[in-house]
């Protein structure tokens, strides 16, 4: 009867080892999927986002002395770094330095009036955090 006990014991150990390996591989697969789903999105892609809005009608948006569009303007493919942003309307213009950061959306809302007393606005940037 000892021969039968030894065979049963060996089969039971083999099943435990196989089951442990299957659980380990499944756990590793789940961790890999979670990493790719949640953490890989935060890797810098090298592109920055910018949106520009103007309250007093449509305005011309100029970035580093190059016309990039009219308001409302939005892009997710700009080069990160310091830039000169100009917003021009028929009433006046506004110019400022902004820093665009990879994987960050910068939003500029500006009311461009006839002068400083008639102008207002804000610059906000939003970035994803883990």
Structure description:
This protein is α+β, with helices and mostly antiparallel strands. 29% of the residues lie in helices and 42% in strands. The protein folds into 2 domains: 2-42; 48-127, no CATH class. The strands form 2 sheets. A 4-stranded mixed β-sheet has the order 4-1-7-8, with no helix packed on it. Strands 3-2-5-6 form a 4-stranded antiparallel β-sheet, with no helix packed on it. Strand 2 and strand 3 (66-70) form a beta hairpin.
Short description:
The chain is α+β, with helices and mostly antiparallel strands. It has one helix and eight strands; from the N terminus they run αββββββββ.
List keywords for this structure.
single chain; 130 residues; alpha+beta; 2 domains; four-stranded mixed β-sheet; four-stranded antiparallel β-sheet; 1 helix; 8 strands; 29% helix; 42% strand; rod-shaped
Form type: rod-shaped
Give the proportion of residues in helices.
25-40%
Intertermini distance: 60 Å
- Please give the domain count: 2
Number of strands: 8
The poorly predicted ranges are: none
Secondary structure tally, helices: 1
What would the average pLDDT be, to the nearest integer?
Answer: 78
Element-level helix/strand string: HEEEEEEEE
Helix/strand layout:
Blueprint (H helix, E strand, L loop, with lengths): L1 H38 L8 E7 L5 E4 L2 E5 L2 E6 L2 E8 L4 E8 L3 E8 L8 E8 L3
């Amino acid at each position: 009867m000892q021969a039968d006990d030894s065979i049963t014991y060996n089969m039971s150990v083999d099943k435990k080892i196989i089951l442990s390996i299957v659980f380990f591989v499944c756990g590793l697969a789940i961790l890999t999927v979670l990493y790719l789903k949640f953490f890989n999105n935060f890797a810098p892609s090298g592109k920055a986002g910018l949106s520009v809005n103007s309250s007093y009608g449509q305005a011309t948006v100029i970035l580093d002395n190059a016309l990039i569009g009219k308001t409302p303007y939005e892009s997710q493919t700009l080069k990160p770094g310091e830039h000169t942003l100009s917003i021009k309307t028929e009433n006046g213009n506004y110019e400022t330095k902004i820093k665009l950061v990879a994987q960050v959306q910068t939003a500029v809302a500006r009311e461009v009036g006839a002068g400083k007393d008639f102008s207002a606005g804000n610059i906000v940037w939003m970035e994803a955090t883990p």
